[in-house]
Amino acid sequence: MHIDVTTQARLHFGFLDLSGERGRRFGGMGVSISEPRLRLRMEPAKKLTVEGQQAERVEILATRFFDAVDLRPEARIKVVQAIPEHIGLGSGTQLALAVAAGLSRLRRLDLSAEELCALMNRARRSGVG
Questions:
Q1: Contact in structure between 25 and 126 (CB atoms under 8 Å)
Q2: Which residues, other chains included, contact 29 with Cβ-Cβ below 8 Å and sequence gap of 6+?
Q3: What is the b/e burial string over 32-61, where b = at least 16 CB atoms within 10 angstroms of the residue's CB?
Q4: Beta-strand pair 3-15/48-52
Q5: How far apart are CA 87 and CA 36, in angstroms?
Q6: CA 37/CA 34 separation, integer angstroms
Q7: How far apart are CA 85 and CA 93, in angstroms?
Q8: pLDDT one-digit tens code per residue, 36-77
Q9: For residue 36, is the peptide bond before it cis, meaning its omega torsion is within 30 degrees of 0?
Q10: CA atoms 122, 101, 34, 31: torsion sign
Q11: How many C-beta atoms surround the C-beta of residue 74 within 10 A?
Q12: What is the DSSP letter of 53?
């Protein structure tokens, strides 16, 4: 059994109404773009192993996930394709949520998108990612 997770990069157009005065929980606009994209492949394993681009970052995120759900870190994760870091394409959010979503499915946890965001400390400002 394996789990494949693919997610697109995004462009963030800015923040709107961060104070919440207009009734919005988040304040931002953005759009996903077809390239670059993130592709992860996950499968069961006896311990946590990560290979490919940004492996160290993925390992940190996977460990955070396993700690948050109180499970032993057991998975093999391969980064097939990665979004370049630190150029404004949402690579951090996409990576964190892709790791959490994939591991959640791999370990057969029924976690909502909101729960995954909370576990990975994401979607606190704009909600665009």
A1: no
A2: 12, 13, 14, 16, 128
A3: eeeebbbbbbbeeeeebebeeebeebbbeb
A4: unpaired
A5: 12
A6: 7
A7: 11
A8: 999 999 999 999 999 999 999 999 999 999 999 999 999 999
A9: yes
A10: negative
A11: 16
A12: T
The Cα 80–Cα 95 span in angstroms is 12
Q: How far apart are CA 39 and CA 45, in angstroms?
A: 19
Judged by DSSP in three states, 70 sits in coil
- Looking from the CA of 98 toward its CB, the CA atoms found within 13 Å total 30
- Measured at the CA of 115, the angle between CA 86 and CA 32, to 5 degrees, comes to 40
Separation of alpha carbons 102 and 2, rounded Å: 10
Residue 89 contacts residue 81 (beta carbons within 8 Å): no
CA distance linking residue 111 with residue 15, whole number of Å: 28
* Alpha-carbon gap, residue 40 to 11, rounded angstroms: 21
Q: pTM, whole model, 2 decimals?
A: 0.85
**Amino acid at position 118, single letter:** A
Q: What pLDDT digit, counting tens, does each position of 94-127 carry? A: 999 999 999 999 999 999 988 998 899 875 444 4
Pick from 5, 16, 21: nearest CA to 127: 16
- Classify 129 as helix, strand or coil: coil
